[in-house]
Write a structure and sequence with these properties.
117 residues, 2 helices
Length: 117
């Protein structure tokens, strides 16, 4: 009987320690994911700034080409403008997705911290 109680107590202790270790690992993983999401957001923000500069440059180029009467060059600049706007929209979508991931990872980490205590 005493042996059974000892085994049950040891099993309960092992489960409790395992759950604590698993909870700590979850928090650590969530923290890593949060850091990665922040890096992704910073990268997307840099890309968006560059895309906005490209769009502004293309607009200026179009104005200059029209002013000079060069319709061929203006058409080429318009094509560049369309591509740059498309890149800008894609980067903005990517940043929105990264922000959603960041919010979810923060929620997950808060829940994991609560579950540990």
């Amino acid at each position: 009987m005493r042996r059974l109680i000892t085994m049950l107590a040891a099993g309960a202790l092992a489960v409790a320690l395992g759950a604590t270790a698993a909870g700590a690992q979850d928090v650590k993983q969530d923290t890593r994911e949060i850091r990665q999401d922040r890096r992704d957001i910073r990268s997307d923000t840099r890309d968006i700034r560059a895309d906005r500069r490209d769009v502004a440059r293309d607009r200026q180029e179009i104005k200059q080409d029209i002013k000079n009467g060069d319709t061929q060059a203006a058409q080429g600049a318009r094509a560049d403008l369309r591509r740059d706007r498309k890149d800008l929209r894609q980067d903005q979508r990517g940043r929105r997705a990264d922000r959603r991931d960041l919010r979810q990872d923060r929620r997950d980490r808060r829940q994991d911290v609560r579950d540990r205590h």
